[in-house]
Amino acid sequence: MSPSPSSSVWERLEPLLPRVSKPARYIGGEDGARTPDHHPARVAWLLAYPDSYEIGLPNQGLQILYEILNERPDAVAERTYAPWIDLEAEMRGHDVPLFSVDTHRPAAAFDILAFNLSAELTYTNLLAMIDLAACPVRAADRGIDDLFVGAGGHCTFNPEPFAAFCDFVVLGDGEEVVGEISAALAGWKADRAAGEAVERLDALVALAGIVGVYVPALYEATHGADGRLLGTRPSHPAAPQQVEKRTVADLGAWPYPRTQLVPLTEVVHDRLNVEVFRGCTRGCRFCQAGMITRPVRERPAEQVRTMVADGLRRTGYDEVALTSLSTADFSGIEDVVRSIVDDDPPPEQRGPGSSLDCGAGLGAPIGPVATADVSVSLPSLRVDAFTVGIAAELQKARRTGLTFAPEGGTWRMRQVINKLISDDDLYGAVESAYSQGWRRMKLYFLIGLPTETDDDTLGIATLARNVVAIGRRHHKNPSVTISVGGFVPKPFTPFQWFGQNTREELTRKVGLLRDELRRDRGVALKWHDPRATTIEGILARGDRRLANVVEDVWRHGGTFQEWGEHFSMDLWLDALGRNGLGVEELAYRHRTEDEALPWDHLSAGLHKDFLWQDWRDALDEVGLEDCRWTPCYDCGACTGYGVEHVVANATPPAGGSQGTGRANPSAEPIAVPVALGRRPEPVGVG
Amino acid sequence: MRLRIRFTKLGKVRFTSHRDVARIWERALRRAQVPVARSQGFSPRPRLHFGLALSTGYESLAEYLDVDLAEGAAIHLAGLPERLTASLPAGFAATAVGEVAAGTSSLQHAVVASRWDIEVLGLGPATLTDRVADLMAAPELVTTRSRKGADVVDDVRPHLLALQLLGSTDGGVLLGADLAARDRALRPSELVALLGDGATEGRIRRIHQFTEQNGVRSEPLTPVGNGPVPPGITAAARPPAPHAMVRAL
């Protein structure tokens, strides 16, 4: 690592760009981009997203850490994304290494290459990028001058399939822990610069001492004669028996990103994004995000309003998304929405622009925060009429389509998965939507859920038909798109023991729906490739033996596996075969209570016996209400970390059954152990 | 009220596409709080009208954009270029803004030709001098090129209005060319191909766009502080474009 300020690869990259598709992906220059001052005493992070720029740029986690690190005196951070296949070939042909888009420094000019891992099928891109960075792909092969490769994001709750490629893995919220990692590595660098006899292992040991940081090299996995995992245990005294996830107690203390990046070229989610809360306690049993991000931590409403107003003014975007796992559950969502879109707010609450005269002479005060110009979207709509009412308030103009996710085709199925939406909730929601001008409904479902019967699968078709029938009362040609995905059981969910449906079974179920809906006008069926679902399943719950498979697929050219046109089932099956591994053992069989799981040495805060009980409840078709508004089930997420739900209102939201499973929720506020306005002290630091 | 804006596109941002530039302008105008009119209908869009598309990878000192202001809105033009530049990404700069009289024809229709700086790599000055002379002397230049996805055979000689050597660059030779934009414009890449084997494109930059009225050429808008457009191609040093470097820091 010998960072030299003049070591930009731009001169060598520039001649390659006219030959590749969408070259604007590689130039940087986004509004909000930083060109930090590198210094030997500072820890230089290269934050990486292992997919194309247009997928990776909007990633909020990466943007949050980018800002937090650049605000620190002991760190700098730049960004990189997977070069598309055409540029990667050009780079390899012309000996151009992986580079940052901010200053086009080569990856070798950094100390840390840190990946956000959000999807299993990106693992091979991780290898491609490490290799392009001129770094050995296996952590065990790295020397004292090589990069430290790290990973964060939801996939790190089972890091074992890629553990061999990472020096460290972070569990949970990154806001605080990246500072501690910077401090640890800055200390190691300082010792090294002072001429002390330091080794790479010293840095890894220091990292292992940070809560939330898992150093795979300090653990050993043992397997039985049949290959099955027996357990993963520390092999070094510095490694804790169990690595706990990190949880930021107060989202209000972290109003990031402050300056969201505005890309020069089109990306997904190309809009302002404001995270309104983190965590979800709806308790949907299939949903890993809802399980591993507990407890619920709301952002103060006033901060949401400020971030929206400042963000729109700064970026020039005309769309803002209020993001979370279920935004309609935000306390007082109606008031927040109204304060954003109100056409005529009181003067002290005016949005940006409306009080400015624009250098004189504007005929009409045109503020960016106004319904006519700005659309506000709620990416995860709850399924009920109340939520549609909020959507109506938000989208005065572009009422094209609305998306709902009932997930299960029958009430029985939805009880099993604990997504307690009644048929009437759904019909009420679409009735409300069609009557207020929306014409296209999109409904998301999972197939291959535990205990699923063909009646449950066909229930999806019944719901779709009834939704179209409701639409016909309001429009001539209402349309419904049914999008079905094969269920992949994930770690730290009650379904982590469930044997995933085979790809043949998923294909059969898709066929059932196709046959059933063949003659239905107005219903379009889309489905996720069951082969990709199978590979996702293998990686989601795989153990360290999968490292050879991931590397094999990469070495045979299997990158960008998230992309349908590049996904290759054969590459994966061949690699599994070459390593003596079978899909049945890895994904299709049910696991038992006493069996070692590859993530047992990690903790998302959830008690394993809570998850097991919830799994049994699922099989008994017993639902579980949202613990934000009902007594605690002691899942472990709050008590284990001394944090609490942070919600501004202890009353369940109005309208429908609200997923609580109760037809008529009590109008009386329910006494619940929540922090009302009080902002808990951060815990677990250091 | 309709505004016409002249702007530059220089440096790394030359790799943004025409479509990217349109989106960049939509955001910049909102940031600068220019009251832009919006289209009617289901999905209202800001009413911006761009002139000739600039190929991805080319630079320009003379891009144009017309903006319809909201009904009844008025705006002071003084200081507006600076305000727009401050709202644009580094590499883009607004160099002039003017009001367009009602009934003025659109940029798409009005612009008849562009002037280009074309860096040619792979051939020496002597060879290029001969090739340029050959092209200018040719009665016709029949070439196959793609139009709306289909290959068509065109005589592009009428589109080659002027061509001459201007000097040398670091690794190549700089040509100046006036290329007609009417019907199907002659592109710099097609001109380089006409120069024959061995010639490849280096840096390419649009210098001027021309409208024509009663045989008199003029720019759709004259940059603030610049004199009239030179009548012919000259090798004289041009003033550097005001980069929007303020925001680069």
Could you characterize what this model shows?
Chain A is of the alpha/beta class and 686 residues long. In chain A, 30% of the residues lie in helices and 13% in strands. Chain A has 20 helices and 19 strands. Chain A has a six-stranded mixed beta sheet with strand order 2-1-3-4-5-6, sandwiched between helices. In chain A, strands 15-16-17-18 form a four-stranded parallel beta sheet. In chain A, strand 7 and strand 8 form a beta hairpin. The longest helix of chain A is centred in the last third of the chain and has 19 residues, at 454-472. Chain A is globular. Chain A starts with 9 loop residues before the first helix and ends in a 67-residue tail after the last helix. Residues 1-6, 343-371 and 659-686 of chain A have low confidence and may be disordered. With 249 residues, chain B is an alpha+beta fold. Chain B has helices spanning 18-31, 80-87, 107-110, 125-137, 188-194, and strands at 2-9, 48-50, 59-68, 92-100, 111-121, 142-147, 150-155, 160-168, 173-180, 200-213, 216-218. In chain B, strand 8 (160-168) and strand 9 (173-180) form a beta hairpin. The longest helix of chain B has 14 residues, at 18-31. The radius of gyration of chain B is 19 Å and the shape is elongated. The model of chain B is unreliable at 225-232 and 234-249 (pLDDT under 50). Chains A and B meet through helix 9 of A and helix 1 and helix 2 of B.
